[in-house]
Design a protein that fits this description.
Rossmann fold, mainly alpha, single chain, two-stranded parallel sheet, globular, about 5% strand
Length: about 120
């Protein structure tokens, strides 16, 4: 776990498509986050806006497809998360795995990559 108070970071989440705008996180995502003392139940999906590229110092894409979409939108302050600890691998959608374990696997991958990203 990253030491509390070590960073002053504001984080938001947005998708590159409009498919789930306004929806709450799925039950499995809420359960995994809760298991790591994180409450995401109040969050709602939103689509990325070009203004996000100005508001946020860094935009983090989870896979190559989203990375490309964000570049196409003109994002300059962009990294792909898997480049930090997973040799450039995409962070997969947890639904690509069978059952609940995929959600925990994806959480662990994201956590590991974020720790590496924060070291740089």
């Amino acid at each position: 776990m990253i030491e509390e108070g070590a960073y002053n970071i504001s984080v938001d989440s947005a998708g590159t498509s409009h498919w789930h705008v306004g929806e709450a996180p799925c039950k499995h995502s809420v359960t995994v986050a809760h298991g790591h003392d994180i409450d995401i139940s109040h969050l709602r999906a939103r689509q990325v806006k070009k203004d996000d590229f100005r508001v946020f110092d860094l935009i983090v894409a989870l896979d190559q497809s989203n990375y490309h979409d964000l570049q196409t939108l003109g994002c300059q302050n962009l990294v792909k998360l898997g480049d930090y600890g997973y040799n450039g691998a995409d962070v997969p959608d947890p639904y690509f795995f069978e059952g609940f374990e995929g959600f925990e696997h994806v959480y662990t991958m994201i956590e590991s990559c974020v720790k590496e990203l924060l070291k740089r």
